[in-house]
Structures are given as C-alpha cells and as structure tokens.
C-alpha cells in the first residue's frame, strides 16, 4: 500500500471533521459482516461538502498521475465510489465507467457500465478498503473485458493484513489517501481519542473478526 504521510494525516483530519469516520470504542458498531467494530466509515458523506470533495478529487487525481500516469479511463466501484470517481475523471478530463458487484440479470446484463475499448489503461477508484474482496472483484471484471488495470486508489483503508495479502496476490498496486494508523495518530494528537481508547482501537485492528468490546 502506497500513501503520502502528510496527505494521510490531512485526509484523516477532514474525514473526522465531517463524521465520515466515527470512532466509538465504548459503543461499537455492527458491520454488515457481523463484525463488531469501534470505527465506522461512510465516505459518501464527502460529496455533501464541496470544499472537502474538491480536496479529495484533486488529491486523488494528482496521486493517480504521479503513481500510474494519466489513464485512458477512470473506473469507480459501485456504489460507494461512483460519485468521487466521476469527479476524479472530470478533473483529469478522461472517460468514466463504473463496475457493479455482478452483471445485471436483465437488459444488456452489463457488469461494467460505460463505453470501453480493448487495451485501454484504467485506474480503479474506491472509497474504502476493508478486506479488498469487492475491490478486486471489480478489477477481475475489468481485466476480463481486456482492460489494462494500472492500479487502484482509495480514500481510506482499514489496513487489514488480509487486504495487503489479497492485493499482493493479485499483483495490484493500491494507493490510498489515508489509512488506519494515520487516522489513529491524528485522532490522538487532536484529543479525539484517549490513550486508552487508542489501545482498544489498535487491538481491534489487529484481529477485527474476533474482537470483543468487552
């Protein structure tokens, strides 16, 4: 996983400010997977804040060009990354497509929505990386359509070891604006969390599927 330390802290700061990320070690959230978690991230909230969405759009676009070169196409992963992916594509002045979790069962039965041509270079935009499974599912669909996937960029990653392993296995370069450790550093420095809460949050991240708030 590639990231810039200054950008990671700045991004963590704004995500906490608008409650796109909430930390609640004492009253954990329940994820769709059933995991108990002291953190919840919903980066779609970014779209409601023009200044912050512009910051994310421009920072993502510049990191894409620096890391991968200007692509032929930007692909957003449905549904969370469609909005920000469109903004990044607009900033770079390149076409935009998005990838569904699976092909539709009706109509043209597309999994990839938008115009593509074989051999095009594409960078995938994600809003959030947990295990990386759904993100890499989108990568597979793009590769199956004969597109050249240069890499992926996401707003935030939980930094799970399983995600690192999954991306490495598929030989996909992941670039993120921010990540879990940068978030904790920022939250502690600004007194958003205490030292004791930091320990709880670190313990969860080390073994999220087995973590118990008690």
Automatic annotation (TrEMBL):
<dbReference type="GO" id="GO:0019856">
    <property type="term" value="P:pyrimidine nucleobase biosynthetic process"/>
</dbReference>
<keyword id="KW-0460">Magnesium</keyword>
<comment type="function">
    <text>Catalyzes the transfer of a ribosyl phosphate group from 5-phosphoribose 1-diphosphate to orotate, leading to the formation of orotidine monophosphate (OMP).</text>
</comment>
<dbReference type="InterPro" id="IPR023031">
    <property type="entry name" value="OPRT"/>
</dbReference>
<dbReference type="GO" id="GO:0044205">
    <property type="term" value="P:'de novo' UMP biosynthetic process"/>
</dbReference>
<feature type="binding site">
    <location>
        <position position="106"/>
    </location>
    <ligand>
        <name>5-phospho-alpha-D-ribose 1-diphosphate</name>
    </ligand>
</feature>
<feature type="binding site" description="in other chain">
    <location>
        <begin position="126"/>
        <end position="134"/>
    </location>
    <ligand>
        <name>5-phospho-alpha-D-ribose 1-diphosphate</name>
    </ligand>
</feature>
<feature type="domain" description="Phosphoribosyltransferase">
    <location>
        <begin position="55"/>
        <end position="148"/>
    </location>
</feature>
<keyword id="KW-0328">Glycosyltransferase</keyword>
<comment type="similarity">
    <text>Belongs to the purine/pyrimidine phosphoribosyltransferase family. PyrE subfamily.</text>
</comment>
<dbReference type="InterPro" id="IPR000836">
    <property type="entry name" value="PRTase_dom"/>
</dbReference>
<feature type="binding site">
    <location>
        <position position="130"/>
    </location>
    <ligand>
        <name>orotate</name>
    </ligand>
</feature>
<dbReference type="GO" id="GO:0004588">
    <property type="term" value="F:orotate phosphoribosyltransferase activity"/>
</dbReference>
<feature type="binding site">
    <location>
        <position position="100"/>
    </location>
    <ligand>
        <name>5-phospho-alpha-D-ribose 1-diphosphate</name>
    </ligand>
</feature>
<dbReference type="InterPro" id="IPR004467">
    <property type="entry name" value="Or_phspho_trans_dom"/>
</dbReference>
<protein>
    <recommendedName>
        <fullName>Orotate phosphoribosyltransferase</fullName>
        <ecNumber>2.4.2.10</ecNumber>
    </recommendedName>
</protein>
<feature type="binding site">
    <location>
        <position position="104"/>
    </location>
    <ligand>
        <name>5-phospho-alpha-D-ribose 1-diphosphate</name>
    </ligand>
</feature>
<dbReference type="InterPro" id="IPR029057">
    <property type="entry name" value="PRTase-like"/>
</dbReference>
<keyword id="KW-0665">Pyrimidine biosynthesis</keyword>
<dbReference type="GO" id="GO:0000287">
    <property type="term" value="F:magnesium ion binding"/>
</dbReference>
<comment type="pathway">
    <text>Pyrimidine metabolism; UMP biosynthesis via de novo pathway; UMP from orotate: step 1/2.</text>
</comment>
<comment type="subunit">
    <text>Homodimer.</text>
</comment>
<keyword id="KW-0808">Transferase</keyword>
<dbReference type="Pfam" id="PF00156">
    <property type="entry name" value="Pribosyltran"/>
</dbReference>
